[in-house]
């Protein structure tokens, strides 16, 4: 028989059997298809680390002074990155002053007890203390701490940065201030049941109901160079760009109430009165805050009559006749709760998906999860409709809750839980028009959509979609595999992004057996091919401001649930929360590295104590020792934002410590000859390139497996797969590598596989050839 060339269709197809997909590929990991041929994915490199929590979203923009800013939202905090440093702008929930003697600690512990009546904090939340009169147990208390656990409504524990060197009780002085940041959100979807949890559908998708509590996911957009952000079912926050002090974001209501709207003059004196007379009420609304001499902080208008110059206020003021009064925007009418925030790219409106409707006499109307509400054009402070502005709102009917939005061409796409809408700017008096594009249309998570050029792609709860002016189901050759592999309970974490350099759309998702993103699926829209693999990424962004796509790797650092000795009973360690730890890996406790092989809830199993420290040259073992309760348990790879398509290795530990990216590609079965007689394959003639490799002698492992028929078991052609190694420098043409691999395989059908497990290896497969001799029929 002549030498047979093996040519395969690009992309992975798992919709049928491996034999019915003859001429295609069936399995892969960390490969892509480019120009019709398979190649290993590009590597990744740690760019910047140092944030707390698991990142769920990123946004990149430049200021008016050309500062490159990256916004990053986690389940715990919100950061602004610039100059490879993360700056914490997390909003405050409350500030409490005048606390006295709230700290208690015991020498030798890694935690401090805080007594604060009705503190309202949750585990994972951060709190900053000031005014503490002295160090306690060797710990400087005028700093930020993480809440370890909540004992009850009046007591909680905070993590100590070091072992307490002394005991203390009811200490800290009598003038302590506690600044509580917004309570930490969930990393994963969890069931919400019990006292205080509202009934099913009472708050809609994204709310804390008996149906479940989703992970905290931020949405954000810009007003000029300032940042607006919100998390699902939470408040809207505003960060005024300041890269000198990086102030904390404040609620949109607070910020709007501090912005000057108009100045008026009083025409009559008012002494300790809740009413004042002004010469002009134009632009004054209920909820407008006023400032001036004799006016207490927090004063706002409760009644503004159309045909009267008398204003009723929420508290008494003393204003001299003729005094100047400054009137600010009616921030109390700005939305203080939403599912998703977006800004229109061209018409410059701030839009809230899900909101409390405007009510001139009520600052806290009933929340409507299907209400679209928008600010005045070019003015995110104005939310009071009038004939002089374009503020407005629209209730949509198809669905029970609005989930997310995406700017696309000359429209904004809006997803509810069952429908897709188009929102188009019409101008006054209607401002925005809404069109129902598709009913019975779903989206799997708030971060599952991306617009590329003129097409929007997204992942639904049971299929993929595209929209380019017409709504279409996206054909997928690995549809059943992906949706069978998807952990649907954790589907809220699905995140989508583009990799425009390779014409790809990426979706990261949690697979069965994982409760965090550990897998991905890629659609190449240029070649219309699909492929998949495994990778932990919680956020992805392909920004034109960065040299390559960036992605977030995130593990929520946990703590030991109890003290452990130098040996581990049953080879397992219990954490306070092990939900985000990968299925296997290495953790660091104090100065000891520990490897583990599986995770069962909050328990790391298969632990090996005193594992090697891979960050030393040469690698050295660490020492197994005892560790206190609440000692931090950090994963080997730190939380970080990394550059993708950088080199050919995993450099999440930095350039000095590259790790191999284990990639493979496996073909579907093909007939040996005509498939009637047995064939004896005795030689493979490889066809590939190692361009892009950084190793001196990069290599791949090439194997072939045969079988008698589709129902029989495979027989691997050799026990130890032959290596195909480049023998010349990459700059030499033609490239030289192992020219032939001798094997012994017999069967009617076969499949080949390429594996790479070495550092410094990049490869692309061409058209392999096999040398076959005809054998008998049985």
* Inertia-based shape: globular
Tell how many strands the DSSP assignment holds.
67
Briefly note the structural class of the backbone: mainly beta
Distance between the amino and carboxyl termini: 18 Å
Helix content: under 10%
Task: Round the mean pLDDT to the nearest integer and report it.
Answer: 91
Read across the widest sheet, the strand sequence of neighbours is 10-17-13-14-15-12-11-16
Q: Unreliable segments (pLDDT under 50, ≥5 consecutive)?
A: 193-210, 729-733
Q: How many individual helices?
A: 2
Strand percentage, roughly? 35-45%
Structural overview:
It is built from two helices and 67 strands. It has 778 residues and is mostly beta strands. The strands form 16 sheets. The chain has an eight-stranded antiparallel β-sheet, with no helix packed on it. Strands 2, 57, 58, 61, 62, 63 and 65 form a seven-stranded antiparallel β-sheet that branches. A six-stranded antiparallel β-sheet has the order 46-54-48-49-52-53, with no helix packed on it.
Topology (SSEs and partners):
Layout (H helix, E strand, L loop, with lengths): L3 E3 L18 E5 L1 E4 L2 E4 L3 E6 L5 E8 L5 E7 L3 E5 L2 E4 L3 E8 L3 E3 L5 E5 L10 E5 L13 E9 L2 E5 L8 E4 L4 E6 L36 E6 L2 E6 L4 E4 L10 E2 H6 L2 E6 L4 E8 L12 E2 L9 E4 L5 E10 L4 E5 L11 E4 L6 E6 L12 E7 L17 E4 L6 E7 L2 E6 L2 E9 L3 E9 L9 E4 L2 E5 L4 E4 L3 E3 L5 H7 L9 E5 L4 E6 L9 E6 L4 E6 L4 E3 L8 E4 L4 E2 L12 E3 L10 E5 L2 E5 L1 E3 L2 E3 L2 E6 L6 E2 L10 E4 L4 E5 L5 E2 L11 E5 L2 E2 L7 E7 L2 E2 L9 E9 L7 E2 L5 E4 L15 E7 L1 E8 L7 E2 L2 E7 L4
Parallel strand pairs: 5-56
Antiparallel strand pairs: 1-67, 2-57, 3-4, 5-55, 6-7, 7-8, 8-9, 10-17, 11-12, 11-16, 12-15, 13-14, 13-17, 14-15, 18-19, 19-20, 20-21, 22-27, 23-26, 24-27, 25-26, 28-29, 29-30, 30-31, 32-33, 33-34, 34-35, 36-37, 37-38, 38-39, 40-41, 41-42, 42-43, 44-45, 45-55, 46-54, 47-51, 48-49, 48-54, 49-52, ...
